[in-house]
Write a structure and sequence with these properties.
There is one protein chain. The chain is an all-alpha fold. The protein contains nine helices and no strands. The protein has helices spanning 2-9, 12-33, 37-49, 75-83, 86-104, 111-129, 131-134, 155-161, 163-188. The N and C termini lie far apart (42 Å).
Length: 189
């Protein structure tokens, strides 16, 4: 049995690399999708309700009247979002997310840059997790079922809670990159 655990323990380097690759793929993909109007429409409640991000939109208090169901085109709502900064905000957020993914890619050459990227992804995850407090749509609404509100996560809530995993993965990558950077500095000294 010990040999099984020794074998498992030897996967640490691969596991950290796979974790980093997973973060990079998610950040580049999700960040890249922020240029698509449907993705911007999906983040509207999070941005509009957030005390950290609502400044990115003009008139965030009126967003509820202009919500677009995922996959449905409502031209009047799209026009409202165009005029009130929704898509610009989404592009800014997407650029930040893609930039964080790129920072993690520097691991082989500049691990100190990747370490900073990991720290920033951790911070981004904290902001995302704050949506559990600021965005009412993360909880199942009271539409007659006894199971609503806390702790019943809606689809949006289940999307947000997954950032706990991203937060942990970011710290694993940050620590690994920082260790690599320190080893290089010691070897160069």
């Amino acid at each position: 049995m010990s040999s099984v655990f020794r074998c498992m323990a030897q996967t640490e380097s691969f596991a950290v690399s796979l974790t980093r690759l997973g973060l990079i793929v998610v950040l580049l993909w999700i960040g890249g999708l922020k240029v698509a109007p449907y993705e911007a429409d999906g983040i509207v409640p999070f941005v509009a309700e957030s005390p950290f991000m609502s400044f990115l939109m003009n008139n965030p208090a009126d967003y509820r009247a202009h919500m677009n169901p995922e996959g449905k085109l409502v031209p009047e709502n799209r026009q409202w979002h165009q005029e009130h900064g929704t898509y610009t905000a989404s592009h800014i957020i997407g650029a930040i997310i893609v930039s964080l993914g790129i920072l993690l890619c520097f691991q082989p050459w500049l691990p100190q840059v990747a370490a900073i990227g990991g720290l920033l992804v951790f911070g981004m995850s904290l902001v995302t997790l704050s949506f559990l407090i600021t965005t009412p749509q993360v909880w199942v609404p009271n539409l007659g079922d006894a199971e609503h509100g806390f702790p019943y996560l809606s689809g949006r809530g289940r999307l947000v809670i997954k950032d706990v995993i991203m937060m942990g993965a970011a710290l694993v990558c940050m620590a690994d990159s920082a260790k690599k950077y320190l080893r290089r500095r010691t070897a160069a000294a």
